[in-house]
Design a protein that fits this description.
- Strand 24 and strand 25 form a beta hairpin.
- The chain folds into 2 domains: 310 residues, Methylamine Dehydrogenase, Chain H (7 Propeller), CATH 2.130.10; 103 residues, Sandwich (Immunoglobulin-like).
- It has 1 helix and 34 strands.
Length: 432
Amino acid sequence: DHHNLVVMFDGYLMMPWSPEFGLNSGITFYDVSDPCSPTAVGTGTSSTMRESHTLGVVPIDGRWYAVVDSMRLDFPDLEGGVEFWDVTDVTDAHVVSKLNVPGFVYPDAYARVTLSAFWQAPYVYVGGSDNGVYVIDARDPMNPILVDQYKFDPVLRVGQVQAIGNILMASAAEGTRTALLDISVPNAPQPLPGGEFDIERESYFSNMQGGYAYYAPKEGGGGLIVWDISDPQSPQPVADYSSGGNGGYVFAKDEYAFVGESDFANVYDLSDLPEVTPIGTGLLEGDLDTITPIGNVVVLSVDDKANKDQASAIVPWQEEVDTKPPRVTYVYPPDGAEGVTLLSRVGLTMSEFVDPKSAWEGSVRLYQTGTDPAVTRVHGYISVGEVIINFAPMQPLKPATQYTLELPAGGVRDYNDNALAEPFTMTFTTAG
């Protein structure tokens, strides 16, 4: 009865369940084709998976893997980090490897643990609280390797981490500070000039979409804080709305934000920023920290004090089934960028959560501008994390060359199988 974020994978609702200390944990897949009668189709268990606040599913060599937080609660030899699951067959999801990180300490749930993991294949970036950001080479999920640990000075208690292209956003858990890092060299994060800022109130967790950073403020009034990070070197405040709640996690879909606020969950209309307008409230017994949008329904999830076997509920928030196609809302590097590093990745945010299996080499492709894509296509890793799609070339790009990133119409799809309606292209030119 400890639930957080859920995602859709292979047509099924993927639900991790675990308390912050692990022990009795797992991932269950549900058939929610009838949302009034979800049916479990497969469950995998783990004695070491701990409460997971993020969830990415990535294809590697023909199989699908997920990465989650982990911990072995065996005093005095306590250790933790992340663990990798093979979820190719939803009826046989299982742990395939674990990687402990240095400095992990429990029982403090925030100071020196792992709080999030974002997979921008082939690297996983892990929010390590006071330990900073860990970088893991996961091109072989059976044998992940820790390649770097970025420590902040002064200490930033890293909660959420998300990568889009060559930018990594690290935001404080229960704090005000955010740092945008340069990951042009993906296994060696560096400070980005002008990329650090403090929001107006302490936030529990954050998210990013459309060039904006969204925050779920804590006891100081709850609600929603929005910053414009479209220029990562000049972040700007946009909106600050108080609801009287106590924020947990926040997600964005189209022009709406979804915020779990402990005693309730709110949906906010952001179509007229800086105005933030609440349009609906969800209730579920327990610490209601998470509200995940899936089409015209949301999944309410509590991570503590739930009624027995009632830690999540599917609730409609719009009357009509979602038929709105997803669209690209932000890209980094920006369209027309010049002098781009030869190790560059390209990241996009979509207007809503993306079906991971719809993002593949036919629907997300990079090639030399003005040429036949079949001839100059760049082979790369394509990974999806909620609304974010990343393309990472497997080899360095050519110097002084213009490239086109293309998403053809009909390719990338949302959770309701709505496909991208209009093709998207952008170009950038490499250094050299």
